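Supplementary Note 2. Why include the ligand at all?

Several targets in our set were suspected to adopt different conformations when bound, so apo predictions alone were not considered sufficient. For every target with a known small-molecule partner we therefore ran a joint prediction. The input for iron/sulfur cluster is given below.
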Amino acid sequence: MAKKKTEQKKWPEKWHELNPGCMVFAAGNAANYKTGSWKSQRPLWDNAKCIKCGICYIFCPEGCIQETQDGFYEANLDYCKGCGICAHECWPGAIVMREEEE
Amino acid sequence: MGKRVGMEVAIAAAEAVALCNIDVAAVYPITPQSHIAEHMADIIHDGRIDAEFITVESEHSAISACAGASAAGARAYTATSSQGLMLMHEILPIVSAMRLPICMANANRAVSGPLNIWNDHTDIMPQRDSGWISLFVENGQEAIDLSIMSFKIAEDPEVMLPCVVNIDGFQLTHMIEPLELPSQAEVAKFLPPRKAFAQLHPDNPISMGCFAMPDTYTETVKAKEVALRAAKKVVTKVFGEWAKRFGRKYSVVETYRAKDADTLMLTMGSMGETAATAVDELRKAGRKVGLVKLRLWRPFPVEEFKAAVQGCKTLIVMDRAISTGGAGGPVATDVKSLLYGDKKKPRVLNVIAGLGGRDLTVGDFVAMFDLAKKKKDETFELYGVRE
Ligand code: SF4
Ligand code: SF4
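The joint prediction is reproduced in token form.
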């Protein structure tokens, strides 16, 4: 399966599309790997309860919560792993976790 | 051709690797591999080869240092045994998944406990599924030849996988045998410098050893499985090239007086030579017996093995390890699984013997043959155990 050139291929779908040894031939590409595929729950915000303290943003272990233009917060679900830490830490109770199937 | 010398096999194994233009050796000494480690350190310290000897503090570090060196493009070598191999266990499948062609000698020794420094195959068996090419040698000359060939096999662009050469501890490592070391020029022609597929370098950043989510891991397993299976073809190709250049022939599965045999014994490693003598004795007594020797343990040479045992009625598998609480010895377990679906297959009997350095003489092989032939059921026998 060794390819002559060490080029970055498209995102691998099939097993033979993987680079040998899963090597990645370009730097600064962690953002390309959407690591949120395994979550079973997702956070839902109720901005009416949010006091814009930014605790959720600080505690998210994935660093996937960002501030919106109007000062509220939202998660980028491509990287959110559904751990629920944001909901646990949000003391006004502005975040609830919902099952992915719902 | 090099000249014949009387030399200890462990020393010869280190001398063979010294002919291979290695860049890095990271070796932690452990009985019965110590003479390989010490002699490798001497060779590099004396400036006989241009390589770095990394004096690591454990085998976990030895294999990890080799992984780093290999990822940077170096030809890396290590050697270990028993507990040392067990300590490497965590890193072994990472090395193969990263497709790093590190070569290693394993001086096979029983694993603790109880503490025992003598030979059997219980150290390599827990590493069986780690994705390494695993070869067994029968004598000192094979240790030299396969140590050199292992680099060529591992580094082949179609393979890019690590390779372990199993050399039975003491039984082989500490024997002084008449041996032939090829010349530096001959080995250089056979084994050109490593051309790494990719290497870690600050000027051209790449990532190795990446993370895979549930949506990709299965695909990585398939890729590794296909790569390891494909390595068999290259092993055979390299054996062929060796035979042409150096005159000594190797096969992934070897047979001895097997053609018209109704009963075959199957061995791996140094047991083979004693078993062959036992076959001669049994033949003299009129028994139609032969021998099959498994040289390549992983990837398992399924087709070659089946061709070798085709037509025999009874296959006695001699294992030097046991899957405690399982189906028997690991070799027999594999063999039975592989034959299960075949319409015509021999009866497979399993004798586990030679554990923790217990000697196996020609008489023992004759006795094991008799024992297996008398067996009424398919359970394994732990040969020689005092009841
Ligand atoms: S659930 Fe976990 S990963 Fe997702 S946004 Fe909240 S803290 Fe971050
Ligand atoms: S922790 Fe809760 S209240 Fe604070 S910013 Fe996040 S959602 Fe709003």
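The first strand of chain A starts at residue 41 and ends at 45. Helices of chain A lie at 55-59, 85-89. Comparable summaries for the other entries are listed in the accompanying table.
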